[in-house]
Amino acid sequence: MKPFHIALLAVCACEPQYAYVPVTNATVIAGHVAADYPIPKEAPRGDVRVASYGIADVGGSRDDRVRALHLRLTLIDNSDRAWTMDTREQLVDLDGYGQSVAAYASANAGSAPPAITVTPMGKRVVDLFFPLPPELQRAERLPTFDVVWKVRADDKDISERTPFERISVEPPASYDPIYDYGAEYYWGPPYFYDPLYGNRGYYRGAGRYAGHPMYIHRSETRGTFAPRRH
Predict the structure, then answer these.
(1) Residue 96 lies inside a defined structural domain of this protein
(2) Who's near 21: CB < 8 A, 6+ residues apart?
(3) How far from 107 is each of 117, 118, 127, 170, 202, CA to CA, in Å?
(4) pLDDT at 31
């Protein structure tokens, strides 16, 4: 895939009165609720954590701005073998709309999306953005969703379904996806364009609202396109 030089818009604050939390395997990590899965179950040698940061504005320009569901998967490999994840295999399932892949993906320093590698005793943080149908682009209209994720560990494909539900929060939850994981997690080049997203967005309208989808690899240092804190 060739580089596609297009800026990612600063991520907006999630809906101020709502947050999305996992229904199962929930734990608090860096002040944020995530689902935590020991990998593999029978003899854990790491874990996968799945969290939602609500609804964000992403895109290449003001005209291309897209309302998308922001998910974060954290992969922690404490084994002596590398783990892998393909961001194109991670899905969101919306009740009544079906499933869709992410239009945008990024990861911290290491192999760039879509092929994520976690080195032995390593950790990767992967952000995924799923454009929403127009009638579900506000939190009050999106009460639940499921995340269907897959990782390859110990030479086996491990897949789980993580349901999320919307809750009211008081005071409003802050949208702080970067600083939860330290100062090294900033947007940065290079950028990768995924020409297949328009054919792979399965729920109604997904391809029409993606604008120019791309994969984004974040550098180890602060980049030009760091999202704003809210």
Answers:
(1) yes
(2) 33, 52, 164, 165, 167
(3) 10, 11, 6, 31, 23
(4) 74
Decide if 201 is inside a domain: yes
- Quick one: CA dihedral 104, 185, 93, 230, positive or negative? negative
* Rounded CA separation 168/87 (Å): 30
d(CA 24, CA 80): 28
Spatial neighbors of 41 by CB under 8 A, at least 6 apart, are: none
**What backbone torsions phi and psi does residue 20 show, to the nearest 5 degrees?**
-110, 130
Does the structure show a pLDDT above 50 at 217? no
Task: Give a yes or no: residue 90 inside a domain.
Answer: yes
Examine the pLDDT at 49 and tell me if it is beyond 50: yes
Enter the pTM of the model.
0.76
- Name the strand (E) or helix (H) holding 196: none
Report which of residues 18 and 188 the model is more confident about: 18
Which two three-digit tokens encode residue 62?
Answer: 């003001």
112 compared with 145, residue with greater pLDDT: 145
Mean pLDDT of the chain: 75
Distance of CA 164 to the CA centre of its chain: 14
Number of domains in the chain: 1
45 within domain boundaries: yes
Domain that holds residue 116: 18-217
